[in-house]
Amino acid sequence: MVITPRIPKLVITMGDPSSIGPEVILKALGQVRHGEAEITLCGDRTIFQDTYQQLCRSGLDVADPEAYSWLEVPIDRTSLEIGVGNAASGDGGFRALATAIEATNQDKFDAIVTAPIAKSAWKMAGHLYPGQTEVLAQMSGCDRFGMAFVGRSPQSGWILRALLATTHIPLNQVPIALTPALMTQKLELLIEHLQNDFQLKTPTIAIAGLNPHSGELGQLGMEEMNWINGWLEEMRSRFPNVTLIGLLPPDTMWVKPGQAWFHGKTDGVADGFLALYHDQGLIPVKLMAFDRAVNTTIGLPFVRTSPDHGTAFDIAGRGIADGTSMAEAIGWAVELVRSRWE
Predict the structure, then answer these.
(1) pTM (predicted TM-score)
(2) Domain extent listing, the chain
(3) How distant, in Å, are the alpha carbons of 17, 272, 298 from that of 179?
(4) How far, in Å, CA of 33 to CA of 170, rounded?
(5) 222 vs 131, which has greater pLDDT?
(6) For residue 1, with 0-12 CB atoms within 10 Å meaning exposed, 13-18 middle and 19 or more buried, which class applies?
(7) Which CATH class is domain 146-299?
(8) CATH 3.40.225.10 is right for the domain spanning 1-142+301-342
(9) What is the average per-residue pLDDT within 29-41?
(10) How far apart are the first and last CA of the chain?
């Protein structure tokens, strides 16, 4: 008896329709191997068709949107302006995301790949969410989730895996948002991510301090001495099969991963990294892997990935956007789905 292998089913949302989203999707799909995944596009079909025609006129070899299945989300295009995020574009991008989540909750897809949105356009349209991550969590009934980043180095093949303890909040709110309960939840998510998605059963995790030099014994901030160091010792007792390194000075935590990414020097480098706030994690991640790193929401009942860049309104419609990060997002969605099956 011939057993037909399972093929991951992916739905790709268009993101903000006035952005580079449709362009990078079509460019990325041109790099996907035939039979690697069953792909459905979610958004305004006409926008994709127009984008395809424009790119073809420019002599670019991109995927034909008519070659894929569709979840259509029509938009009033008279209110759209390419390169400008407004209420119409924000509402269209939001509805595409919501449509994809609803279908995935019905087990029609194994993973969602999301193109970038503009939070300001969402706000103009009355959708008051910090980002797509929070919508994904709310609509899937998940109150335990995290924003993680994964990327494979084209130079060395080493895989970078990083999680943010806090995400889209002002910097002055970070010390307030960080609590032992939140830190425990994020660490648990990262451990599960490494064990379930990468089969790293006894992982090593590096954890950053909050303040410069991790507080330097209270000279540069008291959070480490007041509670974070104590929390870390408790976590070492709770997870004896996990090696927890820290608290590392935030400016030096990324030296070893940088050497592993660019030069393949992997001795002593951790399997995963926990950064305590947005820029502490994403400045080094984007410096190393801007076109390779992928945003993945962990803790959801399905796989979600997204390119690690924004809407790039300034170059939308010009045909010059780079589809590499979107291609990586599609590739990682396939890989993570298969890993969970295994």
Answers:
(1) 0.90
(2) 1-142+301-342, 146-299
(3) 38, 21, 20
(4) 41
(5) 131
(6) exposed
(7) alpha beta
(8) no
(9) 87
(10) 21
